[in-house]
């Protein structure tokens, strides 16, 4: 079945109790049990699991071609829960260009958990191979990466990880399962910030981990979630589930619009570089074509004259809102180094765009006037 159909129908049976077509939101924190405390329908207490979260998880597993899924209160809560399953003494490889809070987890928390790490360019397979150690348990990849839009070869990384007895985890937030399904390429788990495209309307925070197989890893991450507490709320689960229904059509328009915007930017005299994997000039274009069906809605570019000029461009846009985050219907623009703060490794002249669902001509016109002298 085509992805577009799967996204509309995943875990979407009418409600058994009422025949409602839209799913119910179960807000109950507790569930009746038999006198010896046996759950009557599998649920006991909200932090351990709730029916709306379960509905979202079934849909996530289906659309990501996974065996099981877990929903979380945030994307970083999902990522941290995976890392917290690792035994002390484990070594992890993280991308040199990753969501900035991953590097902060590595700096501020992984030492306390006695987990060591190296930052490596995940698009350079020889560098990844050289960085592997006997204790390396996990490779963490992000493709396309934030904010430089680097592409790594997920099938090759999965093979490399497995040769060394390690696992491959992929942060698939930018691509979403509409455009890229890492489990089909051999990854062991996929993580998403559902705050972004899966929610899709800039009005819900959430995260997800989807597993290639059932078993020990899924159980350990679920244990971390239910005891350390990054469970998704019922209402947030419901909003993300609703977002999934339109994911395929939204990602098509995000991708078409971003392609137009990237082509415009790459021909502009004030733009030093445009980072978009859909451009034939992007170093990861051939791999992106192999593992993605379209190239997504995120574009970053560098303003030739430097930091101050880049910030001035942000001040002049009228449609693009100056804000962080991504994946909503409205277009956003951000001076990424400023919002990442002192730990940032992002070039000072880089602007990141989340290209929304407006008409592409209007978006290009807005950028044209913002870039005009
Ligand atoms: C936003 C984001 C995260 C973190 O997700 P939250 O929902 O903000 O916790 C992780 N990875 C990527 C690529 C992101 O864009």
Short description:
By secondary structure, the protein is an alpha/beta fold.
Would you mind describing this structure in some detail?
This protein folds into two domains: 3-245, Type I PLP-dependent aspartate aminotransferase-like (Major domain) (Aspartate Aminotransferase, domain 2), CATH 3.40.640.10; 249-371, Aspartate Aminotransferase, domain 1 (Alpha-Beta Complex), CATH 3.90.1150. Helices cover 37% and strands 16% of the residues. It contains 14 helices and twelve strands. It has helices at residues 3-9, 51-63, 75-83, 100-108, 125-131, 154-163, 176-179, 216-228, 234-245, 247-266, 285-291, 307-316, 336-340, 360-371, and strands at residues 68-72, 91-95, 116-120, 136-142, 167-171, 189-193, 207-211, 271-275, 298-303, 321-322, 332-335, 350-354. It has a seven-stranded mixed beta sheet, sandwiched between helices. A five-stranded mixed beta sheet has the order 8-9-12-11-10. α4 links the parallel β2 (91-95) and β3 (116-120). α2 packs parallel to α9 (234-245). The chain starts with a helix and ends with a helix. The mean pLDDT is 97. Pyridoxal-5'-phosphate binds next to α3.
């Amino acid at each position: 079945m085509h992805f577009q159909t799967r996204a509309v129908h995943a875990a979407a049976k009418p409600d058994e109790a009422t025949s409602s077509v839209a799913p119910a939101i179960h807000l109950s924190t507790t569930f009746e049990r038999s006198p010896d405390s046996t759950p009557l329908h599998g649920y006991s207490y909200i932090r351990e699991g709730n029916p709306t979260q379960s509905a979202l998880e079934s849909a996530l597993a289906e659309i990501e071609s996974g065996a099981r899924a877990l929903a979380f209160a945030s994307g970083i809560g999902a990522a941290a829960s995976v890392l917290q399953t690792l035994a002390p003494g484990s070594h992890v490889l993280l991308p040199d260009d990753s969501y900035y809070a991953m590097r902060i987890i590595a700096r501020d928390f992984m030492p306390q958990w006695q987990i060591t790490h190296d930052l490596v360019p995940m698009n350079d397979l020889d560098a990844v191979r050289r960085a592997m150690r006997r204790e390396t348990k996990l490779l963490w990849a992000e493709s396309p990466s934030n904010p430089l839009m680097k592409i790594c070869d997920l099938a090759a990384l999965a093979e490399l990880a497995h040769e060394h007895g390690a696992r491959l985890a992929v942060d698939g937030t930018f691509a979403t399962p509409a455009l890229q399904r890492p489990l089909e390429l051999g990854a062991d788990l996929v993580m998403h910030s559902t705050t972004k495209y899966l929610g899709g309307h800039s009005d819900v925070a959430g995260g997800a981990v989807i597993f290639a197989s059932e078993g020990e890893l899924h159980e350990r991450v679920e244990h971390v979630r239910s005891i350390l507490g990054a469970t998704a709320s019922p209402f947030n689960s419901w909003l993300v589930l609703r977002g999934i229904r339109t994911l395929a059509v939204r990602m098509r328009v995000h991708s078409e619009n971003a392609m137009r915007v990237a082509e415009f930017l790459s021909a502009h005299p004030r733009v030093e570089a445009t980072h978009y994997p859909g451009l034939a000039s992007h170093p990861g274009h051939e791999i992106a074509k192999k593992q993605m069906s379209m190239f997504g809605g995120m574009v970053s570019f560098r303003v030739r004259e430097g930091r101050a000029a880049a910030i001035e461009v942000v001040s002049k846009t009228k449609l693009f809102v100056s804000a962080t985050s991504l994946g909503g219907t409205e277009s956003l623009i951000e001076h990424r180094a400023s919002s990442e703060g002192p730990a940032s490794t992002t070039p000072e002249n880089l602007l990141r765009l989340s290209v929304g669902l407006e008409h592409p001509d209007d978006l290009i016109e807005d950028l044209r006037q913002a870039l005009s002298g």
